[in-house]
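Meet my pick.
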Amino acid sequence: SLIIGLEVQFADGDYVQAEHTALFRTWEGAFLVLFALELCLRIHADGVRRTFSDWWNVWDVVIIVGGAVTLSIHFTNASLIRVMRVLRLTRVVRMVGKMRPLFLLLHGMLESLKMLLWFAALFLTVLYFFAVVATSQFSSSDRFATLAKSMFTLFQLFTLEDWPSIYEDAKRAVLPGYEDFVWMFFVVYIMVSSMCLQNLMVGVCTEHIFNVAQTYDSERAQKRGKSYTEHFEAIRSALTMLDSDG
């Protein structure tokens, strides 16, 4: 994936492409040979049927064949070469399942997706409520001229991006003597959105990641215990057989 990034960065311009094409093609050929060797070792160890029962191995064959075709034929269509680059990047996704921390993070995010959808609904409700108030009070400011603009501005305020400038625009939009309402509105909205809702979202994701980690560890412990039991039974059967033979 690192080589693909360098290739995208330095090999798309005409001048640079002519200078570095040979180097990138050499790297690509070397990695294709390594991928093909890895697949052959997998087939030798697990057999053809078991190897290709895993769709990731079938996808590896597609990537290897496609990469070999792009190397052996000089394509004039650069978009096809870019497609093959993206296909090769899918191997990075495969590595997620083999790295426990990344697997737990991804699985936890997927498990918390339902709660995140409810969080999005809650956030949109809060955003709409405050947008109605902002549009009715600060409509003379271009940032809050319409309900849609107010919602976009408040979403920007949720990220705390350029919030002093937004505050000053809203302050100039109110009548003299009502400036206190502006800072109270901003303080309440920032506390509700950026502090409460954002921390709530982080807490939901963290809880699901912990639950996934506990479940994963429990399943591994059960598998380990089952394996120990099977080995113990095999040893006991062998000892019993030897004892019966005298």
